[in-house]
C-alpha cells in the first residue's frame, strides 16, 4: 500500500492550481450582500478551501452572521490572510491552517487546532477541491486520477471522520458538489466523477447521522468565477468565455453561492437533510 507521500505529491500542480485570488482579474465578488441577523451567532465553523473563491465568500458571510471560522487551505498564504482579515473585520475570530486535506493526519490536526482555539465545532463545510481538464480519457494520468479523488472525496471523508466526535445535536455538514455531477462534463471526467461520489456521500451520511440530530446537505454550484478555472481548471482558450453558455449568460460570483451554504448551516434549514441546492444560473435545467 502506498503511503501518504506517494499519493499526495505534488501539492502545487504544474497547472498553477490551486491559484491565487490576489492575482486574479477581475476579482471575484465575495462581499456579503446584506446585514447579518445572528443566524450563526457564536457558532464555530471549519471551512476547507476558505482562502479564496466560494470558501472565502462563505467565511465572510458566516462571520457576518456571528460565527468564528477556521480557514483551511493548501498553500495560498496571502489569500488565506486576506480571508482572516475579512472574518476579523466582521468582529469574529479566525485562525488559518495550511495543509493538505488529502492527508488524514492533517485533517485530524486541523480539527484539533480548531477545538483548541474555539472550544467547539458546530459546522463543517467541505468545500476544497481541484480539477484538471483533459479532452481524452487516455490523457488522465494515474497520478492525476488518484490526486483528484484524494482531494475531492477522500478529503471529505477524512475531515468528517475527524470532526465527528465534536459535532453535537444541531450541527451541520455542508459538502460542495457540482453541476457536473448532474450534467456530466466531457473535459472533466475525473472531477465530475468525484462530484458524483460527493453527492452519494452526502445522501448516505445524512441517513447515517440523522438520528443524532446532525444534518448533512450539499451545494452544487455551476460556473463560478474563482481562481480554480483561470489558473488551470479550464483550458486557457476557454477562460474568456467561461460561464457564457449558461442560461443566464455569465458566470456566477462567490457571493451568489455563499447564501446557499448559510441556509443549510443555520436553523432555517432545520427540516432539510440529504438535499442539494443548485446556485448554477440555470445550468442544471438546460439541455
From TrEMBL:
Skewed-composition ranges (Basic and acidic residues): 12-32
Keyword Cell wall biogenesis/degradation in record: no
Region ranges (Disordered): 1-35, 227-254
CDD domains: SDR_c1
The UniProt record lists the keyword Transcription regulation: no
Keywords: Oxidoreductase
Cited InterPro entries: NAD(P)-bd_dom_sf (IPR036291), Sc_DH/Rdtase_CS (IPR020904), SDR_fam (IPR002347)
Residue ranges of the TM segments: none
Pfam families to which the protein is assigned, alphabetical: adh_short_C2
Top-level taxon of the source organism: Bacteria
Family stated for the protein in its record: Belongs to the short-chain dehydrogenases/reductases (SDR) family.
Protein name: SDR family oxidoreductase
Organism expressing this protein natively: Sphingomonas anseongensis
Lineage: Bacteria, Pseudomonadati, Pseudomonadota, Alphaproteobacteria, Sphingomonadales
Amino acid at each position: 500500500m502506498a503511503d501518504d507521500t506517494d499519493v499526495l505529491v505534488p501539492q502545487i500542480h504544474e497547472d498553477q492550481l490551486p491559484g491565487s485570488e490576489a492575482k486574479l482579474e477581475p476579482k471575484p465578488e465575495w462581499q456579503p450582500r446584506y446585514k447579518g441577523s445572528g443566524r450563526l451567532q457564536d457558532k464555530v465553523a471549519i471551512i476547507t478551501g476558505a482562502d479564496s473563491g466560494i470558501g472565502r465568500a462563505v467565511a465572510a458571510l458566516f462571520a457576518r452572521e456571528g460565527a468564528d471560522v477556521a480557514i483551511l487551505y493548501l498553500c495560498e498564504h496571502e489569500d488565506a490572510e486576506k480571508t482572516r482579515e475579512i472574518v476579523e473585520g466582521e468582529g469574529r475570530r479566525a485562525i488559518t491552517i495550511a495543509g493538505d486535506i488529502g492527508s488524514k493526519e492533517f485533517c485530524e490536526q486541523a480539527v484539533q487546532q480548531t477545538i483548541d482555539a474555539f472550544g467547539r465545532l458546530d459546522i463543517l463545510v467541505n468545500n476544497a477541491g481541484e480539477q484538471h481538464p483533459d479532452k481524452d480519457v487516455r490523457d488522465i494520468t494515474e497520478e492525476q486520477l488518484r490526486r483528484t479523488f484524494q482531494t475531492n472525496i477522500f478529503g471529505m471523508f477524512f475531515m468528517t471522520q475527524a470532526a465527528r466526535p465534536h459535532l453535537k445535536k444541531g450541527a451541520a455538514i455542508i459538502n460542495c458538489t457540482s453541476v457536473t455531477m448532474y450534467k456530466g462534463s466531457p473535459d472533466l471526467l475525473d472531477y465530475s466523477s468525484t462530484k458524483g461520489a460527493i453527492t452519494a456521500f452526502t445522501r448516505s451520511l445524512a441517513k447515517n447521522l440523522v438520528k443524532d440530530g446532525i444534518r448533512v446537505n450539499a451545494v452544487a454550484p455551476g460556473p463560478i468565477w474563482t481562481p480554480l478555472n483561470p489558473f488551470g481548471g479550464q483550458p486557457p482558450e476557454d477562460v474568456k468565455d467561461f460561464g457564457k453558455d449558461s442560461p443566464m449568460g455569465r458566470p456566477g460570483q462567490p457571493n451568489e453561492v455563499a447564501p446557499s451554504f448559510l441556509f443549510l448551516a443555520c436553523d432555517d434549514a432545520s427540516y432539510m437533510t440529504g438535499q442539494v441546492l443548485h446556485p448554477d444560473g440555470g445550468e442544471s435545467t438546460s439541455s
